[in-house]
Amino acid sequence: MKKKQIASMIILPLIILGIMIVISPFFTRQEDYIHWNSFYAQEDNSIDILLLGSSIIEVAIDPYQLEEETGLSAFNFGVAGCSSSVRAGYLREVLKNQNPKLVVVEVYRFIPTHSPWAMSTDNASFALDGMKPSWNKWRTIWEMPVSGDPFEKISFLIPGEHHQWEALNANGYTSLREQTYDRPKWNGTQNSVAPQKPNTVPSTEVLEPTKEMTDQIDKLIEICQENDIQLLFFNASNPEYIGESYAYINGMYQYLDSKGIPHFDINYEPELLAQIDNSEDYFDYHHLNDKGAKKNTTFLADYINENFLRKD
User: Are 73 and 43 in contact (CB under 8 A)?
Assistant: First the structure.
């Protein structure tokens, strides 16, 4: 009798969890699938440059322009609110069907003062809902340092965490690489203008990166080295970066230097930063609009052309 009770205690929760996994996709928000469906629509081994990060890199780098200026195919996998803790999971998922030559990783969400919001259950589910069910998805969820007990991580698969109905295959979306740079998420905003305060010289203070930061960096380095992929950490122009934020970034750059990993920060390039017009190139306090994106994309393309191999 006891064996049956124990078995039922184990099997019943597994059945319930399985049902939740199956029905969960029908409750996700529409935006969640845009990036993932776009990625899964790409032909195998068709991506040379992969960009990973949050909305900062999403709106800062135009993949079509990057392709034109480097001769390398590019895919921008920037997702709004995407925590640095899921980037290794994103990269593992990409490598199932792609073999990028270069992975460009946004610096912004590594900063501890900016990560708690992105670590929230709601934003984490936003970043992962569109990923196909697999061991990697489970692993990525479990790797996330979300506050609370372990059951909070399981809640990513529970429909109560989601906001809207969404068709399982999201047929209404076409590949973002087949569209213009005017992405559905940013229509009506990317060309808006929000004047910024003048650029401030980044702080020279150095704060040691947290263990969470270095662990996440090390995962990316390990994956790239195992797959013979070049890795670059990138920071787009951003007038918000002052004080403690840059102290952590400086510490992060020192850590990357110790590992022999390159980093390119436009905010540390006075000649480039001088080309950014803070009164015209942002649509809010730290997101670039189309004008600013064109400039940042050229800056990154020039760096890639100078430091990495072109296809042609």
Answer: no
Instruction: Please check whether the domain covering 23-307 is classified as CATH 1.10.10.10.
Output: no
Three-class SS state of 105: strand
**pTM for this entry:** 0.80
pLDDT digits (tens, 9 = 90+) for 228-260: 999 999 999 987 666 667 888 999 999 999 999
Cα distance between residue 259 and residue 248, in whole Å: 17
Which of 74, 71, 48 minimizes the C-alpha distance to 61? 74
Half-sphere CA count of 139, side-chain side, radius 13 A: 11
Hey, what are 135's tokens?
Answer: 């061991």
Tokens of 309: 């191999």
- Provide the CA 178 distance to its chain's centre, in angstroms: 20
pLDDT in tens, 14-55: 777 677 666 555 555 445 567 787 888 888 999 999 999 988
Distance (Å, whole) CA 120 – CA 59: 22
